[in-house]
Amino acid sequence: MIVNLVSKKQESIFWKLHLTWWVIYIAYRTLPTCKLPEGSATTIIFFYVLNFSSMVILTYIYRVFYLKVDLDSQEKYWQFLSLLIGVIICGSIFFLINSHGFIYHYKLWEHQKITTEMRFDYLLECIWNAFPWFLGFHLFRYGHILKERESNLLQSLHDSELDRLRKQLNPHFLFNALNGIRALVLIEPHSAREAIAQLSDLLRLSLKTKLDENIQLSEEIEILENYLSIEKIRFHERLNVEINIPNELRYYKVMPFCLQILAENAIKHGIGQQKKGGIIRILGDKTATHLQLKVMNEGTLENKSNSLDESTGIGIENLQKRLKINFGEKAYFKLEEQNFMVTASLGFPLEN
């Protein structure tokens, strides 16, 4: 069916424009009244109903053929040729369907002779009357092609950027994890072995997670918990974690590694800088429009005079770029400090 080939929105727009154009055409042919053909009211109504219905049906059939053959993907030569052939064929069929009525069109009496020249003039008029619809249809399709190409190009650029960010994040993530385990190898080999086992689970999760696809919050929490289990082995009692995210929120979609990056940042720039360690709190709630996630840790922003990217490094910068690509202005990220407490906040639109 034709509805399967185009979106419902496009189908609705087509029918509105399609019927509007042919109503305008009939109105143009009818008004002023001097353009009315000769004959009774029934004859006149029948003539214009036949005009209207034949043009609506013929041009719709052309559209069905055009989309099924997928002429949008052909060279401009074929598109121009299809326009030319289509308008001639439709105009000719329109002429054949209505040819019995052109005596009224020319206001001739039935006993007068209809010449070949008159027939040819009427054929040209039928073709000319069909031409504006065909021109408008092809201009509309050409605009659609340009818009689709632009959309595909933007999507390709987004995919390329996400792939670059993924390649950037994976080594960064692995380096930081191994760097943490390295310190344990000589002094606490048993803890190091346990941390390596946890790292293997974390790598397994990271390998099956695609950065260009959002995941459920429950999956992100699983990644986060695996990461924090490694850090707890390294920090022992210096690191405490509280996760307070209601179960009903865990089915919403978020970007992969968003909480893991924020927790890593909190440990590196917050807990890791405190001799006695500290606590990390991961909170979640929602508003009417957004899912809100917060990672809080004791400490201060390292350098308030620096920009956000300069003070937090690759992970946060990577996160911000992915937010921009995936959600534009609909999502947000904030990093704030108040009363010796740093809060990293993420907001994802519920509609995603």
UniProtKB/TrEMBL annotation:
Output the Gene Ontology cellular-component terms.
membrane
**Can you tell me where the transmembrane regions are?**
12-31, 43-65, 77-102
Pfam families hit by this protein: His_kinase
Q: Which SUPFAM superfamilies match?
A: ATPase domain of HSP90 chaperone/DNA topoisomerase II/histidine kinase (SSF55874)
One function term, GO molecular function aspect: phosphorelay sensor kinase activity
Indicate whether Transmembrane appears among the record's keywords: yes
Q: Where is the Signal transduction histidine kinase internal region domain?
A: 161-239
The entry's keywords: Kinase, Membrane, Transferase, Transmembrane, Transmembrane helix
Highest taxon of source: Bacteria
Q: Which InterPro entries match?
A: Bact_2-comp_sensor_kinase, HATPase_C_sf, Sig_transdc_His_kin_internal
Could you tell me what this protein is called?
Histidine kinase
Organism listed in the record: Arcicella aurantiaca
